[in-house]
Amino acid sequence: MMVLFAVSVANAQTQGFICTGSNVNVRTGPGLKYKLAKDAVSEEECQLSKGQLVKYLGKKQDGFIYVDVSSSFTEYHCKGWVSSQYLKPVKLCPSCKGEGYTNVIGYMEGTKCKRCNMRGYLTSNFKRK
Predict the structure, then answer these.
(1) pLDDT by residue (tens digit) across 11-32?
(2) Contacts of 22 (CB under 8 A, 6+ apart)
C-alpha cells in the first residue's frame, strides 16, 4: 500500500493533501531534527490544523513531503516539510487551483469557487470536524 501512495504522489504535480492530525508541525527539512518553518510575514511557526489543505511541491524524502501551506484558507504563508503520516492525498480543483476562490483579491476574498464548493479539492471523503 505504501508503494501505491508513493507512486500517486510522484505522478501528480497539481495534487494536494488534507491534514489528518491536529497541530501538525511544518519543518524546514525532511525530518524531526529540522526546525519548524516560519511564516514569511509574521515569523510565527507554521502548524497545520485537521482538515487543512496544502499543495504538493513535488518532493518526498524520508517519510516527509514538501508542501505549500499558503492559500486563501490559511493565515500562514510558508513552505516546508510535513510527515506523510498526517497527510491524505486529494486532487486540487482545476478551477480555483486549490484556493477555494477564483479571482482572489486578498485573504479569503474573491469569487467563491462553485466547482469545488470552496473546498479547494474535488475528490475526497474527508470531512472536517
Answers:
(1) 444 488 989 999 999 999 999 9
(2) 49, 50
Residue 105 one-letter amino acid: I
Contact 120, 54 (CB under 8 A): no
End-to-end Cα distance, the chain: 26
**CA dist 59 → 84, 91, 117 (Å):** 12, 17, 28
Q: Are 100 and 119 in contact (CB under 8 A)?
A: yes
- State the number of CA atoms in the 13 A half-sphere of 95 facing the CB: 15
> Which of the residue ranges 15-19, 54-58, 67-71 would you say has the lowest mean pLDDT?
67-71
Q: Cα(122)–Cα(115) distance, rounded to whole angstroms? A: 8
Rounded to an integer, what distance in angstroms lies between the CA atom of residue 41 and that of residue 22?
23
Which is nearest to 65 in space by CA: 36, 35, 30, 90?
30
